[in-house]
Design brief:
The chain contains 2 helices and 31 strands. With 407 residues, the chain is mainly beta. The two termini are 24 Å apart. Pfam families: WD40 (PF00400).
Length: 407
Amino acid sequence: MHTQEEQLTLPMEAIDYYYGNELTHALRDFVPGYIEGGTDASVFVDTNQINSWNVLGEQQTMNSPERSLRRQGKQPMVETGRKSKSPLSSLGLVGKEIGGQSNPMVVSTQKDKPKGIFLKNIHNYHATNIELLCCHFNTQGEFLAIGGHDNRVMIMDLGNNNFSTGEGHFQNITDIRFRPNSTIFATSSLDKTVKIWDAAEPTKTYGSLEGHYGHVMSVDYHPTMVNILTSCDHNNEIRLWNVNWGGSLLTLKGGSKQVRFQPQLGNLLASSTQNIINIFDIETQTLQKTLQGHDGNILSMCWDTTGYYMASVSEDRARIWSVREGICVFELLSGVNKFQSCVYHPGHILALVIGTNKFLELWNPMCNKNITSSFCAHEGVISSLADSRAKGTIASVSHDGWMKIWS
């Protein structure tokens, strides 16, 4: 059931924000059959265990992934990576590194609780006459990077309202992601490469990662080890790279559409292929969970800010998952408007913004499990959404060639 409103609004009740155990307690009340426990403790790795990953690529201090797995009696689910001959040494000279941590989770009180979640259109830009496919904010929300069928990267400097472009790919740009706390970003393309850029000077590329044998469909930076990057291609191959020397560290199987690191720690890597999500433990390179339940291919997925929950959409449904339990805790069927993209609302945990053909839909399963607020936002398929926690805004891009900002 959908309700059309002038402004995309969703009523809120007492459950506005939840973090960690508080959200688990709430889910016991709201989700029939929700069971806590039964979790493999290795799904969430102790923060000390990841230290060896900080020095991947520095052989004198690195523990061999294969050796680590054999000590545990496991076989690595990994193929040997092939080093690139083109180091990206120039990356040390570009990109404005910005200090500080990501915004902490805000816990609302009854006194300052908002009366509703809403999205208001605050900025529009007609970027191109052909389809846009991807967008992403940098950590501070100062830049929005866009890509699509135009083959160019497009950068909107939101502070100065300047628009610039850069060329480097020969085919469609499929995904675009900023390095945390930086103006550096990466793009993936159907031309089988990943390219590195600087939003402060986007007219040229600063490196190219080559080694995929198929169209590269997605890319993402590690949240804390900023020189580690992952990508996947349509042959179901996932690669991890060290962008400092341009080398492929390892190869996994199980991702053909999208890859996303777990926020904050980055211990887990989620990848989607057809109608399933695979959750890999990065430290051990082992498959920890497989999330199944979509009928159609998964088109978009995203982590919530805690790293405990994921959302995914296929044309027929949206699902919110407890990654720890490996179960779906909420589901929404799409109806007439087929789902295409998703992102969590930057201010309200588990409230999901969904892109469809022309419409944005706002779903808060903690209040209304089967109801969304709906608003006509574009003239074509809304192919990608991005959130800025720093600014409290959401960006949408569409096959209509428009970029829009919502607050």
